[in-house]
Amino acid sequence: MVTLTLAAGATVAQAVTASGLPGRYAELGLASADLSYAVWGRAADAGTVLRDGDRVEILPPLMVDPREARRRRAAARGRR
User: Fold this and answer.
1) 3-state SS string over 15-64?
2) Count of C-beta atoms within a 10 Å radius of residue 16
3) Burial (Cβ within 10 Å: 0-12, 13-18, ≥19) of residue 23
4) 3-state secondary structure (DSSP) of residue 11
5) Cα torsion angle, 24, 25, 26, 29, sign
6) DSSP 3-state assignment of 4?
7) Whole-angstrom Cα distance, residue 30 to residue 24?
8) What is the model's pLDDT at position 56?
């Protein structure tokens, strides 16, 4: 978690850049263009304007489609 002070009208992209997290955790793929963002748990794009006190979340790409993961778990349970 990183606490930042940004100018009024700052965007999600500016907050992520100012945090320094993408460079610090490059091995996690945070520099990828495939990242998604959320503000307080709600989907947001890089251009979303932030308000005072907002929490920005960096969401890496999914490794497996959630529907496919559920199908695999159900199939594994059925084989028991």
Assistant:
1) HHHHHCHHHHCHHHCCCCCCCEEEECCEEECCCCECCCCCCEEEECCCCC
2) 19
3) exposed
4) strand
5) negative
6) coil
7) 9
8) 95
Q: What is the pLDDT along the chain (80 residues), one digit of tens a residue?
A: 899 999 999 999 999 989 988 778 776 666 666 788 999 999 999 999 999 999 999 887 778 888 999 999 999 888 76
- Residue matched to tokens 């005072």: 52
As a whole number of Å, the CA-based R_g of the chain is 17
Order of all β-strands in the sheet with 42-44: 42-44, 36-39, 56-59
